[in-house]
Amino acid sequence: MEGNLNLVGYGLSAIGGGIGVGLVFAAYINGVARQPEAQRVLQPIAFLGLALTEALAILGLVFAFVL
User: Fold this and answer.
1) What is the Cα gyration radius of the chain?
2) Residue 21 pLDDT more than 70?
3) Domain locations along the chain
4) Which of 1, 4, 28, 62 is most buried, by CB atoms within 10 Å?
5) What is the pTM of this model?
């Protein structure tokens, strides 16, 4: 068996990013469904969670090519 496991690591980080985004927006939708007037407060928090989760997936891609 030849090669390295960099691409497997990227695949795991992509799966983790997808699960993370799903959890962030599930919590956002649940919060807005319970209190619709809190949408203005929850929406920026949800987008911040999305950005941080996707940043980790992009870091996984970068490390897969660098290492």
Assistant:
1) 16
2) yes
3) 6-66
4) 28
5) 0.76
